């Protein structure tokens, strides 16, 4: 199970994308999305999100 970004909460700051060690996060339609196939569930993205928009 990969992490997910709550699009309603995401402010598209890009902090999560910069923190991801496997480049599993990209911008799509003005929000960040996580590629479940690439996500290694390390939690780095969730720890850097300033609005807590990322969860398992």
Descriptive account of the structure:
By secondary structure, this protein is an alpha+beta fold. The chain has one domain: Alpha-Beta Plaits, CATH 3.30.70. It is 18% helix and 21% strand. The strands form 2 sheets. The protein has a two-stranded antiparallel sheet. It has a two-stranded antiparallel ribbon with strand order 2-3. The termini are close together.
Order of helices and strands: EHEEHE
| Neighbour order of strands in the largest sheet | 1-4
Fill in the CATH topology.
Alpha-Beta Plaits
Tally of DSSP β-strands: 4
Average pLDDT for all residues: 96
> What would you call the shape?
globular
CATH architecture: 2-Layer Sandwich
Estimated share of beta-strand residues: 15-25%
CATH class: Alpha Beta
* Main beta sheet: 2 strands, antiparallel
Sequence stretches where pLDDT stays below 50 over 5 or more residues = none
Q: Helicity level, as a percent range?
A: 10-25%
Q: Can you count the helices?
A: 2
Count of distinct structural domains? 1
Structural class: alpha+beta
Span of the ends, CA to CA: 7 Å
Cα radius of gyration in angstroms: 10 Å
